Amino acid sequence: MKNQPSLQIRRGISTATQEHIAVAEIRHLIHQDQAQLILFFCSAAYDLARLAAELRNAFGDTPVIGCTTIGQLGLDGYTSGGISAISLAGDIAAHPFAVDLAAMEGRMSGIADETKRIIGMHPDQRPFGLLLVDGLSLMEEQLASLLYRRMPHLPIVGGSASDNPSLQQTHVYVDGEFRTHTAVFTLFRTRLPFRTIKFAHFVPTDTTLVITRSDQEKRVVYEINGEPAAQVYADLVGVPLEQLGLPTFSVNPLIFEMGGEQYIRAIGGVNPDQSLTLYCTIENGMVLSIGRAVDPVANALAAFDRLREDIGEPALVIGCDCLLRRLEFEGSGLLDAMGDIMKCNQVFGFSTYGEQFDGMHMNQTFTGVAIGTGHALA
């Protein structure tokens, strides 16, 4: 009879602004024997070359992955600045793969073959994938779709790296350095129970629209129902065109439905020609509905209750939470309440520029993977 599987987790946060101090503090907090992976999220305000060197020195041959972010989630709820990290040991293994987004077609073929080989060598373990991707690459849709086509039976969740608003560059850390226009796909395998999770506090209304002219690569919609996109949207939500902005967009996102699932397409802004810039790709002919917000607290509690029905108490939830959700919670005074929910459910994650779930890229959503029946170290 095999031993009961267990998961050893150590968590750490440092708000030090000097790279060597921050990494030293993190290493002290999360070091454990036989760590299988270090996962971290950090402020883009660090000197990333120096931070990379400190990380290499601190963790040696242990695989380390991470990305820049405008904010983190953890046992302190929603935080910002500094660096947060976890180390994982026990009945879990991780295999990171760097993906150059300029050559992802060829690279993904090799990754898929290696992933299938690894899975085949360990039939007693179940696999899942975690994706971290440059959040300003505009390549998330292609990457998520390609991963899903190559490995359709592998559960995959992920998030797009974010940055401090003034820096305009997002980075992924893999193979010992921070990189742009890069993703890291990590294959996990474990005997522990796990479940992927996706939730958003919006429901579709009866107000539908059809995209009639758009630029997929730039994520710009020029026409809806054959008319200027911004004017049509303003008329449908009952707001004057000149008053359109984040407050309206955040509570009236576009929702795409497919296969019984709903995927949010957030609007980023209005352009001078009355086109709309989105945070996800939109295709001509796509039929969408305008979303209506429901209680985000009740929505999150229900999602985690369903999770518990499947795997029991989570030892860890690796979470990818849209930055637009965080901004909404800050504006509505719900950030502490939502942070408490994340704390109670052992979430470790970051504020993203977009989220991935299996073969789809979306916005204003929480995606993640919950691992249960493990033993978490303090």
Question: Can you summarize this structure?
Answer:
Pfam families: FIST (PF08495), FIST_C (PF10442). This is FIST domain containing protein. The chain is an alpha+beta fold and 378 residues long.
Describe the structure.
With 378 residues, the chain is of the alpha+beta class. It folds into two domains: 7-199 and 297-372, no CATH class; 202-293, no CATH class. The protein is built from nine helices and 26 strands. It has helices at 19-30, 48-59, 104-121, 140-150, 229-237, 246-251, 296-311, 323-332, 335-344; strands spanning 7-14, 37-42, 64-68, 72-74, 77-79, 83-90, 92-100, 126-133, 156-160, 172-174, 177-179, 182-190, 194-199, 202-215, 220-224, 227-228, 254-258, 261-265, 267-270, 276-278, 287-293, 314-322, 347-352, 355-357, 360-362, 366-372. The strands form four sheets. Strands 14, 15, 16, 17, 18, 19, 20 and 21 form an eight-stranded antiparallel β-sheet that branches. A hairpin with a 2-residue loop joins strand 10 and strand 11 (177-179). Helix 1 runs parallel beside helix 2. The longest helix has 18 residues, at 104-121. The protein is globular, with a radius of gyration of 20 Å. The relative contact order is 0.17.
